[in-house]
Design a protein that fits this description.
44% of the residues lie in helices and 16% in strands. With 353 residues, the protein is an alpha/beta fold. It has a domain of 237 residues: 3-Layer(aba) Sandwich (Rossmann fold). Bound molecules: nicotinamide-adenine-dinucleotide (NAD). The site of nicotinamide-adenine-dinucleotide (NAD) has 31 residues, from helix 1, strand 2, helix 4, strand 5 and strand 7. One of its GO terms (molecular function) is dTDP-glucose 4,6-dehydratase activity.
Length: 353
């Protein structure tokens, strides 16, 4: 049995769906169901006897202690987090609470349970912490991509909170011997991503004929990875990664934000042409840049490729097209997550529009 946290979010739900598809091993999903968590993401496994949902906070030590005693997981995969940079600028406390304090409380609880396990179970156990490349800060255009030994230089409250959690995870390995693994992954895209993030936001606005907001000059560079590729990398790290190590995960797909938006517009032009025949790219609107916006992230994936034999399988253009198709076919999902609270938040965010 494995315990997944934050499994009702974008990446966690893809991980659970893939897990139950490819393995007989049961999954317990602990999720607080914040605005970003949707049980509907896991509708496909709702009746599956190998799937068990628990509503709760990773920082609830009593609840987590009970879950560990009851289910005796052989591994934990920690996705639970506040994950949106813009929200971390307007409300950083929630990020400190879940990403830092929540992870720390988990480590304490897990370690207290793990240290009394029989020797074999102790050595086989894994705590996999899912983190981001944003902890490394911003790269110059010609600088070498982030390797695992790159200095931590987080620039946003989000990345600062994830960096802190990574350090605690590392410390629990070095101080207490807990068999931890950390992954630092680039930007994900794919089905079921909450439409506050760039790619689903652009698809959503384009279909409504609304402006497509691009921060500043739109030349910020990110590496993009399909969520299914991220999940296959996580499975590889969980099964074959060395305890105490961290692994960078990337898509070998560096693109400027403007290129990403244009790729979405082209896919939409082909799949759902506008009534007046005008290209979606006409809706692109440059808005005031995000404060402290990192210029470039890029991943050196030679460690995970060399040690674990993992590489991404989904090409960027095909992945974007498939993602656009998914959103076109799941308008009911979009409607169910873009509630009044979502509209209020987007309204505040892009008030200038
Ligand atoms: P998400 O915001 O879509 O989902 C987060 C999930 O965590 C939600 O289901 C939410 O309800 C749950 N959650 C939040 N606080 C919780 C708490 N205190 N206790 C229990 N559950 C809680 O996030 P995502 O995009 O799926 O990201 C998952 C993880 O991957 C995060 O740790 C994030 O930092 C990391 N990551 C994300 C990306 C990306 O591009 N999205 C890239 C690299 C790493």
């Amino acid at each position: 049995m494995i315990l997944v946290t934050g499994g009702c979010g974008f990446i966690g739900s893809a991980f659970i769906l893939g897990w139950l598809d490819g393995s007989d091993e049961p999954v317990v999903n602990l999720d607080l169901l914040t605005y970003a968590g949707h049980p509907g993401n896991l509708q496909g496994v709702a009746g599956n006897p190998r799937y068990h949902f628990v509503h709760g906070d990773i920082g609830d030590q009593e609840l987590l202690g009970r879950l560990l005693e009851t289910h005796q997981p052989r591994a934990i995969v920690n996705f639970a987090a506040e994950s949106h940079v813009d929200r971390s600028i307007s409300g950083p406390m929630a990020f400190a609470q879940t990403n830092v304090v929540g992870t720390l409380k988990m480590l304490e609880t897990v370690n207290a349970w793990w240290r009394d396990r029989p020797a074999r179970e102790k050595s086989d156990f894994r705590f996999l912490h899912v983190s981001t490349d944003e902890v490394f800060g911003s790269l110059a255009p010609d600088a070498a991509a982030f390797s695992e030994s790159h200095r931590y230089e987080p620039n946003s409250p989000y990345s600062a909170s994830k960096a802190a959690s990574d350090h605690f995870v590392r410390a629990w390995h070095h101080t207490f011997g807990l068999p931890t693994l950390t992954t630092n992954c680039s930007n994900n895209y794919g089905p079921r991503q909450f439409p506050e993030k760039l790619i689903p936001l652009i698809i959503h606005n384009a279909l409504l004929g609304k402006p497509l907001p691009v921060y500043g000059d739109g030349l910020q560079v990110r590496d993009w990875l399909h969520v299914d590729d991220h999940c296959s990398a996580l499975r590889a790290v969980l099964e074959r990664g060395r305890p105490g190590e961290s692994y960078n995960i990337g898509g070998r797909s560096e693109r400027t934000n403007l290129e990403v938006v244009r790729a979405i517009c082209s896919a939409l032009d082909a799949l759902r042409p506008r009534a007046d025949g005008a290209p979606y790219a006409q809706l692109v609107t440059h808005v005031k840049d995000r404060p402290g916006h990192d210029r470039r992230y890029a991943i050196d994936d030679s460690k995970i490729a060399g040690e674990l034999g993992w590489k991404p399988a989904v090409g960027f253009e095909a992945g974007i097209r498939g993602t656009v198709e998914w959103y076109l076919g799941h308008q009911d999902w979009v409607d169910s997550v873009t509630s009044g609270a979502y509209r209020e938040w987007v309204g505040q965010q892009y008030a200038a529009l």
